[in-house]
Amino acid sequence: MKVFGIAGWSGSGKTTLLEKLIPEITARGLSVSVIKHTHHDFDIDKPGKDSWRHREAGASQVLLLGSQRWALMHELRGRPEPTLEEQLSLLQTVDLVLIEGYKASAVPKIEIHRPAHGKPPLWPDNDSVVAVASDVELADCPLPLLPLNEPAAVAEFILAHLESA
Asked: Of 30, 43, 50, 141, which residue is 20 to 30 A from 162 by alpha carbon distance?
């Protein structure tokens, strides 16, 4: 599977861009999966629901299944967070896996950079950043600059980059 990342500081627009990229890429006939990395504690379950109660009782894994989707919840219970490679091995084979986050991974990625947010760019210290998507011109950036608000152009860049790799 080909893997490509979207990285940037919190609030830069990673999720919004991915939300627009997925239909651009699937419209070209490719299958896409997403891995989102977060540093925040999260729970897709709801307190009091059966699956939540099973986890609270100590189950290591709970698979929730319905007629429209299924979800596998895995409790780490103090064990280290799995690596990106371990997570990729859990996915069914698709044409492209887009990852959100994983700034330090060696996966090629586009950085979303908005100078108005006051955060430094990642690209000067991150060799895996192959392009920058922004809503303004960045005169000092030596990498390809992509228009953040044009997801078709960003999708074209990603697919062309993966094709040439």
From this structure: 141
What residues make up the domain containing 12? 2-42+83-164
Has residue 54 been placed in a domain? no
The answer to whether residue 33 is domain-embedded is: yes
Q: Specify whether the backbone of 107 is left (phi greater than 0), alpha (psi in -120 to 50) or beta.
A: beta
Distance CA 144, CA 153 (A): 12
C-alpha distances out from residue 151 to 25, 62, 72, 105, Å? 10, 36, 31, 23
Residues 6+ apart with CB under 8 A from 120: none
pTM score of the predicted model: 0.89
Q: How many domains does the chain have?
A: 1
Residue 142: strand, helix, or coil: coil
CATH code of residue 8: 3.40.50.300
What are the tens digits of pLDDT across the range 60-76? 888 888 899 888 888 88
Task: List pLDDT tens digits, range 148-164.
Answer: 999 999 999 999 999 99
Nearest partner of 86 among 105, 111, 108, judged by Cα:
105
Tokens of 18: 């991915």
Radius of gyration of the chain from Cα atoms? 18
156, two tokens: 């074209």
